Amino acid sequence: MAEPVAAAALSARGVWKRFGGLSAVADVSLDVHAGEIHAVIGPNGAGKSTLINLLSGDLSLSAGTIALGGAEIGRLPPDRRARAGLGRSYQKTTIFADFTVHENVRLAAQAQAAQPLRMRGGTRADPVVNDRVADALARTELAARADVVARLLSHGEQRQLEIAMVLATDPSVILLDEPLAGMGQSEARRVVDLIASLRSGRAVLIVEHDMDAVFELADRLTVMADGRVIASGRPADVRKDAAVRAAYLGEEDDA
Prior knowledge:
alpha/beta; six-stranded mixed sheet; four-stranded antiparallel sheet; 34% helix; 24% strand
């Protein structure tokens, strides 16, 4: 008897986003499972960033459903999705540049705390927040840089910090939008290794243009073109797909 397939940590069904008469995302469905890195790829204008913005709530749905851990979240605002367990990073690094690394991560952890705006008694006394901050700094290899002002970090370290801030919210699902953009080889290598570690106990969806990194990281690929999914599956299978080679890799089968 076959074992039952585990429910998806994040599931989208029939997702659409229309801007006037233009459908930037058209009837897209996908599942992301815990312990898996699911990469969404495609040419510029394929609808990848629009899709991730729909999943996070930064854009509203025109149609379709989004479920997190089986609960419908498609009409919730971004902050409520975050509190439900959805974390994300952006194409442009979003950190508090004049705060230290530790302060950045603590602010993220406090946002998920039971009393995030507590001013008296010292937020440093909260053991849950303390544990999340310490764990996030350790996992992103930033513990030794905790007292450095964020704007003084290298570009790669700022990306690590952004991921640390996401981890500090204790998400069940992480969305990463082009996390390797603008990086040199050594920095990219460090961040690729960090992203690979995120799949432990979590579901990760990544949008990325670095194909070497994508094929190294991804357990599953979804390929988009013109707002639609044209292929989805294991990387080795997707790589052989004729529609993918034609639409994304610029290749065509010989006649």
